[in-house]
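Cast an eye over this sequence plus tokens and explain the fold to me:
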Amino acid sequence: MRERLAELMAYCLRLGADCADIRVKTIDTESVSLENSEIRGINSDRSVGYGIRVFLDGSAGFAAASDFDSMEKTAERAFKIAKASGMLQTRKIALTPKPVVVDDYATPVEIDPFTVPMSEKIALLMACEEAMGAVPGVTQTSSSMDFRREDVVYCDSDGSYITQKFCQSGGGISATAAGEHGAEARSYPCANRGAHARAGYEYLLSLRLKEHAEEIARESVQLLNAPECPTGVYDLILDPGQMTMQIHESIGHPTELDRVLGYEAAYAGTSFVRAGDLRDGLAYGSPQVTVVADATVPGGLGTFGYDDEGVKAASTLLLDKGRLKNFTTSRDTAGQIGLLSNGACLADGWRHAPLVRMTNINLLPGAYELDELIAGIEDGLMLSGTKSWSIDDKRINFQFACEIACEIKNGKRTGRIFKNAIYSGITTQFWANCDGVANEKYWSMGGTPFCGKGQPDQTARVGHGSSPTRFRKVKVGVGDAG
């Protein structure tokens, strides 16, 4: 294939392109879903195709196809689009330089999930379903597994040729208890089809879903009978699962440079951050808050060898002790603020052109033991399990609902729990009130394989690592906080 793609890139240059690249992707997916001990869905899919980008005098064209016998015609279509785009050009696209690379990369995998018999996968989920369903008061159970495998070939007109193999595995379980006054669900390891990582089936096994099934089922019943979460201003500790969404929505998206520059606006908003804030060292949070965009961390959903522009994966400091230090960037956006791309330009499959995407946006661990964080709270809550979230288009005002709140009084957990915990805040104020992060012993990776962005909509796989984290004076509830 290398010779064929190199010839195609040469053809793009003969058409008159300044430069070009192509991504060839083969994507296999598999999902299994059970509900109330019955199989609700077994789905598998394969998608094979390629996408070609052509750049001409500061304009870009993109075309994609699954017909490998018509690659030249697809290249011609991309070239024509680039030429037509020049007629409406308001700013020339300038790609920052990158090295010519010939390399390969593969996700470390112990057990290929696509070789594990379906009967074995169903048996594991069925055991979880039965354990949850056996708990008195549980009215609904669900469980799922999802797997994704990608073979990617990247080639460009400069001479780079990169092959990559990715493997993603994950799953989760959920139990619901319903009664006269509503229903309460408890999920493990997290809601929205569980936890996922770039790893093999061994990751799914490491989640120990069956061992946690009875526990979360009992918690759902306890929640049903628990009091409503009180309204007021409280000190909070967010566990790593809840921190995943907090980091994602209030740090990950606002620091994507295309949002900052205003290019991503219609679908999911822009950002309160401005390009000039980098020079000024915007105070984004407290000195406890150091965040990296790290596409190299093992197991992260946003981990890879090279992005979809052929830029090597990197670890980039976004926030240093609360101060803005960088953005996630692409080759065309980075140059506009005098930087080089840090390898955060990715596409969903082969049908779409790549755009700026989060990689693994991680809050680095602090120095605290978890008990020390708890001991520092006189009246507060520990929150777990994301139920829902909302944040405005500029990523300023947010609100999160959690599955469970555990009471903390006088520096100790009381054992009392509350349901319907909702907290809200303003991004920079909230992160400024972070005064403690647990140490590396409590640090873990999370993430979501369902991050939407772009028009047409693209879905990305992004990771978030953190430890339990303490925040002071947070509004809890939807009424008057007093």
